[in-house]
Design a protein that fits this description.
Helix content is 50%, strand content 9%. With 353 residues, it is an alpha/beta fold. It has one domain: Nicotinate-nucleotide-dimethylbenzimidazole phosphoribosyltransferase (CobT), large domain (Rossmann fold, 3-Layer(aba) Sandwich), CATH 3.40.50. The chain has a 6-stranded parallel β-sheet, sandwiched between helices.
């Protein structure tokens, strides 16, 4: 716990002074004021995050966190649990959606075994950080111990901090892989929001009506059995979450601690971000939600975070795919701030409008 406390102490809000300087420049550029809308808002946020008017987002890295869940064995997914390990193999071979989209935007992908239920070969070029072989079923008790949750948080933070300090990655993305992980993610948002589970539960991998009903009942049972404390983010994480969700939460804490922006993917990655922001509210300054997921509980997460997703493309895949696509837009934010000339620089008459 001491290491987590030390990490939390490093996280400070974004610099509002640099945000103000960015807005001053944006309002002086050779175009009607406010004409680039949210591009301006995000550009100003980048300035506050990095404490600079010249943010460098050229080196991009996406962490795809993988883990299994005991609840998956109770029939909440259209796919069997062994698909998690099989998909990790597809990431290794470069066959999956995240590989293709990350290459498109010039981002590296690093897959992290946080808690896959299978023994993955040590020679696979992934980050082997297995906390356990899948969590315990949340319908019967806590998914993991408080110590395991802290271990996951610190692991995710250390990965991001190392990527920035040792390799200069200035833009981090997060994604997930884990059969059944929409169930603990729904449990997390239900715990924090207090809203009825049925209003928050989606079909995940495309389950039928019977499976959806079972999923809702199991989440309700999990909340009744565990009684997570919404005022204690770590309690919610260890009782309702997963090893990869802990890693995803830790990644945002790590990014915030070194003043680097992080763009999270959809439902599961946002569940991790929500945990991080409840643990350290200032971490929200460093978070960008990549897209609005079709998964119904994601809208509730967005509202709790008071966030505005970058994209809305009816996506629900995970892996980090939304984060990759949003990175292209993020490049535009930096260029808007740095490259558009001001009226004074261009020698253009400013009408003041």
């Amino acid at each position: 716990m001491q290491a987590l406390k030390q990490l939390i102490q490093l996280i400070q809000p974004a610099d509002r002074g640099f945000e103000a300087r960015a807005w001053e420049r944006l309002r002086s550029q050779i175009r009607p004021r406010g004409s680039l809308g949210q591009l301006e808002v995000m550009a100003a946020r980048l300035a506050g995050i990095g404490r600079t008017l010249s943010p460098d987002l050229s080196r991009k890295l996406i962490f795809t966190m993988a883990g299994d869940h005991g609840i998956a064995l109770e029939g909440v997914s259209a796919y069997p649990q062994e698909v998690t390990a099989q998909m990790v193999y597809s990431f290794v071979r470069g066959w999956a959606s995240i590989n293709v989209l990350a290459e498109h935007v010039g981002a590296q992908v690093r897959v992290v075994d946080c808690g896959v239920a299978a023994d993955l070969p040590p020679e696979w070029p992934i980050i082997h950080q297995k906390i356990g072989k899948g969590t315990r079923s949340i319908s019967r008790g806590p998914a993991m111990t408080r110590e395991e949750a802290v271990q996951g948080l610190l692991m995710g933070a250390d990965l991001v901090r190392g990527a920035y300090r040792r390799e200069g990655f200035g833009l981090i993305g997060t994604g997930d892989m884990g059969i059944g992980n929409t169930t603990p993610s729904t449990a997390i948002v239900a715990a924090f929001s207090g809203r009825p589970v049925a209003e928050l539960t989606g079909r995940g991998t495309g389950v039928d009506d019977a499976t959806l009903g079972r999923k809702i009942r199991l989440i309700e049972q999990a909340l009744e059995v565990n009684r997570p404390n919404p005022e204690d983010a770590l309690d919610v994480l260890c009782k309702m979450g997963g090893y990869e969700i802990a890693g995803l939460a830790g990644a945002l804490l790590g990014a915030a601690s070194v003043k680097v922006p992080l763009v999270c993917d959809g439902f599961i990655a946002t569940a991790g971000a929500l945990v991080a922001c409840r643990l350290v509210p200032a971490a929200a300054d460093y978070l960008f939600v990549s897209h609005r997921s079709v998964e119904v509980g994601h809208q509730a997460m967005i509202e709790l975070l008071a966030a505005r997703p970058v994209l809305d493309l009816d996506m629900r895949l995970g892996e980090g795919t939304g984060a990759a696509l949003a990175m292209n837009i993020r490049d535009a934010w930096a260029k808007v701030l740095m490259d558009i000339k001001t009226f004074a620089e261009a020698g253009v008459t400013d009408t003041g409008k």
